[in-house]
Amino acid sequence: MLDLKSFLLSFAACILLLISSSTIFAQNRTTNSQLKLGSIHFPTSADGEAQQEFLTGVLALHSFWYPEARDHFKKAQTLDPTFAMAYWGELMTYDHPIWEQHNQSAGSQVLKRLGRQIESGSISWTEREKGYLDAVRILYNDRKDMDDRRTEYAQAMQSLYEKYPSDETLAFSALASMTTPDYNYSNPAPDKLVPIAANLEQLYKRNPKHPGGMHYLIHIYDNSTFAEMGIRPANDYSEVAYSSSHAIHMPSHIFKQLKMWDKVIQSNIKAYDASVNWQKKTDRPLKDRDYHSYRWLFEAYLEIDNFEEACDIIKNTQQIEQQAKENGEKLGRIPELLKNFQKQYKAKEKAPHCISG
């Protein structure tokens, strides 16, 4: 029987073989100078400021920074209402496949706006760009269940990648393939994982600052078998895309698998703090902070029995909820988060009573 070390060595060899036989794409990049989100090359039929807003949106999209990405895609639409890919980008921000979240209503409204532009004959797109739009439409076809939509979307993106091989079709096709119903995220079958990982490793090697390459590699290695292979992208990603709180958080997926609790804690302290700064700077409601990172921080404290810090998080979450109420803001998932914190804390037998308001 093949032991784990031998299996991983064989797996790594397969990755290197697939990378070496892959197509090499153009090396020129477009780097955003305002937000530090990495570097991509994604030419479209637009140019000027609208294209720059679009590129920033895609960079944010690769880091699952959906609200920020949406702002840039909508600004690109304002600058150029005929810019088809700006509508594609906004549609992508309403679908969060890894988190199993999908906003059908918001996406349908975008499709209506796009439809009006198409009917007027003013829309600007190439065949490649039309392929992106045709693919994302599948995700909003409410006549089919979501599992079927995800499968068909992944197939459409794979076809688009084969027809128009590029960093972006590769990245989005890889992400789509990781979110189909036959892909087991927590324990992926090697025959499913290897081809996706090989393509992403190829992208990571070609452009070490591509946020999607690093981000999706971390996700694909986020399991006990392959976690060690995620250390490289984990160490790079938060340095390259440090404007995004989610990018700062993501290395903790690998650190958690490897039980590196101090690093899990540090990653999520920095990630949550970054989201607080963004929320305040952009004058957004308190519900828009990165509570995903905050939850990971709380659970890491419980894992090492640091009950004092865990209790402080419960108290702070209560204060945030109260402040949001006083501000007249929507609470979003803050009450649910607080309830789960309290439940998890009480479930720890050794935890002292947490006196909270």
UniProtKB/TrEMBL annotation:
It comes from the Bacteria. Residues 1-26 form the signal peptide. The keyword Signal applies. Keywords: Signal. PANTHER family: TPR DOMAIN-CONTAINING PROTEIN, WW DOMAIN-CONTAINING PROTEIN. This is Tetratricopeptide repeat protein. It comes from Fodinibius halophilus.
